[in-house]
Design goal:
Helix content of chain A: under 10%
Order of helices and strands of chain B: EEEEEEEEEEE
Number of helices of chain A: 0
Order of helices and strands of chain A: EEEEEEEEEEE
Largest sheet of chain B: 7 strands, mixed
Shape of chain A: globular
Strand content of chain B: over 45%
Number of strands of chain B: 11
Largest interface: A-B, 25 and 25 residues
Radius of gyration of chain B: 13 Å
Shape of chain B: globular
Structural class of chain B: mainly beta
Structural class of chain A: mainly beta
Number of strands of chain A: 11
Oligomer: heterodimer
Helix content of chain B: under 10%
Distance between the termini of chain A: 37 Å
Chain lengths: 113, 115
């Protein structure tokens, strides 16, 4: 079982719709969760972090965390063509050496104008 | 505030050669992590350095190594290059505090092509 799993997509949504991206993780002790966005040919950039169960909203983005189900999701409301990118779910895994951040394979999102 | 700087941005090597990549973290960041990104495998964790010590390591062969200097700059080396080492190598820095909340900031990456 991979440490962080995402549906690779592609996920295609029309402009103005809600895009829903999902992620599961295997380490029940994980405490910190992140969503990064990566445009083609660019490096990943952080868009959301979440540490507590429930929802966290930032503009058009909402991150949802359910630690009991080991599930993280990202909702993008009013999707725009500029949101077309690969979205990477990341989890901080603890260990003897401190934390390391492990990424899922990413979900490619296409927003059709 | 300058971001994470990686050099070189692009390089081409042949099988059997070795390569060294450099990463200068954001000022004040003491932790540097390295990742390999390929279309088939996604972002794979290589290792993390903090205060000149390797703190975490991923599942890569010993041909992949790294080090960190006293000014927090880091280098990674790949010896005896194989075709499968062609990838984008990303460096990311963070403050390195023990809290799992502190996040990574990535550099632009070094794209390695092995012929």
């Amino acid at each position: 079982q991979k440490e962080v799993e995402q549906n690779s997509g592609p996920l295609s949504v029309p402009e103005g719709a809600i895009a829903s991206l999902n992620c599961t993780y295997s380490d029940r002790g994980s405490q910190s969760f992140f969503w990064y966005r990566q445009y083609s040919g660019k490096s990943p950039e952080l868009i959301m972090s979440i540490y507590s169960n429930g929802d966290k909203e930032d503009g058009r983005f909402t991150a949802q965390l359910n630690k009991a189900s080991q599930y993280v999701s990202l909702l993008i409301r009013d999707s725009q063509p500029s949101d077309s990118a690969t979205y990477l779910c990341a989890v901080n895994l603890g260990g003897a050496g401190g934390f390391k951040t492990i990424f899922g394979a990413g979900t490619r999102l296409f927003v059709k104008a | 505030k300058a971001g994470v700087t990686q050099t070189p941005r692009y390089l081409i090597k042949t099988r059997g050669q070795q390569v060294t990549l450099s990463c200068s973290p954001i000022s004040g960041h003491r932790s540097v992590s390295w990742y390999q990104q390929t279309p088939g495998q996604g972002l794979q964790f290589l290792f993390e350095y903090f205060s000149e010590t390797q703190r975490n390591k991923g599942n890569f062969p010993g041909r992949f190594s790294g080090r960190q200097f006293s000014n927090s700059r880091s280098e990674m080396n790949v010896s005896t290059l194989e075709l499968g080492d062609s990838a984008l190598y990303l460096c990311a820095s963070r403050t390195g505090q023990s809290s799992g909340a502190n996040v990574l900031t990535f550099g632009a990456g070094s794209r390695l092509t092995v012929l």
